[in-house]
Design goal:
Blueprint lengths: L4 E5 L3 H12 L3 E6 L2 H7 L5 E4 L5 H6 L7 E4 L5 H13 L4 E5 L3 H9 L4 E3 L1 H14 L3 E6 L4 E7 L7 E2 H4 L1 H5 L2 E12 L5 E8 L7 E2 L4 E7 H11 L1
């Protein structure tokens, strides 16, 4: 398959959200759960859905999960199942296994058995809420393995009508604008008028930032923090 392939195991609230979000982003998602009702619920929203006992190695292998690029295990509240599934996925050759954990101890144990990344939804949500309250215009803020951060933020009023060159953005903030997003009005085949985001992925110094635009910038974390402080 051409796209990046994912398996989401455990279709509770967390797993369901991950599966649907990955699909919206263009990922090819296999949704797996032992509950037939949950599998039936999501079957039309993802590439494939399978009802199987995730703790049974042969059954899990027969789903083809060993061929995916990333597996997300969303059964963190059931430590025994999370451990077994993590071990089986690594045995089947899945290169990246992301596992939901409900405590620091669970996270430590899951790391020991092969999880390549641990996520704590409540902790992540806490960080997100704090960011939304502190800087409501920020759409996303992601830390890279290099220590740099990528920031997606609504362009402040002081930027409207100015080019990137006029703002002297790199010299002033120590950041690089890597994309500019703006809404455009389109008419569907059914005659409906809708707003959609379009992205300028290669902005130049002469591109003008307009009201309603969203800028995507990258740079050192300290510069991102200073930039947010200046535009708040």
């Amino acid at each position: 398959m051409a796209g990046r392939q994912y398996a989401v195991i455990g279709l509770g609230e967390f797993g369901m959200s991950v599966a649907l979000s990955l699909t919206e982003l263009g990922g090819e998602v296999m949704a797996i759960d032992k509950n037939p009702q949950l599998v039936e619920e999501i079957k039309d929203e993802v590439m494939s859905s399978v009802c199987v006992d995730v703790k049974d190695e042969r059954s899990l292998e027969e789903t083809g999960v060993g061929d995916v690029d990333v597996a997300i295990v969303g059964v963190g509240d059931d430590l025994e199942t999370a451990i077994v599934v993590t071990v089986l996925l690594k045995r089947l050759g899945v290169p990246e296994v992301v596992v939901k954990a409900s405590s620091a101890l669970h996270a430590h144990i899951l790391k020991l058995v092969g999880a390549t990344r641990i996520v704590d939804p409540e902790k992540e949500m806490g960080k997100r809420i704090a960011m939304e309250v502190w800087a409501p215009d920020v759409n996303a803020r992601i830390r890279l393995s290099t220590g740099q951060e990528v920031l997606e933020v609504a362009a402040p009023q002081s930027f409207w009508g100015k080019t990137i060159k006029q703002l002297s953005f790199r010299n002033t903030f120590g950041l690089n604008i890597i994309a500019i997003k703006n809404k455009v009005v389109q008419t569907t085949k059914k005659g409906e008028v809708v707003e959609k985001w379009q992205t300028n992925q290669k902005p130049t110094a002469d591109d003008v930032i307009a009201q309603g635009d969203v800028i995507v910038a990258v740079g050192d974390a300290k510069n991102i923090k200073a930039f947010l402080g200046k535009i708040r």
